[in-house]
Amino acid sequence: MSEPVTCANCQACCCQLEVRIVTxxxxxxxxxxxxxxxxxxxxxxDDGWCEALDRNTxxxxxxxxxxxxxxxxxxxxxxxxxxRDLAGI
Length: 89
Fold this sequence. Notes:
Elements: E1 32-34, E2 40-42, E3 53-54, E4 59-60, H1 68-72, H2 78-87
């Protein structure tokens, strides 16, 4: 049985998922881009990671203003465990 997911071992694999911005939570404009359908999404770096992810801490640099989807994605939830499995964590 694997150890429980905590902030210390999270590895932020959810920060590689596409995040559509569906409500106004105050995401700074420089972290927003538009998909091919014209919807606002979180900007991602060339390697696929969210631009708002602090690479040194693996924590969100805009945590208080993160999109609703990020707020609803719960650490250690079924979705989280699935993404960790897909990432080989």
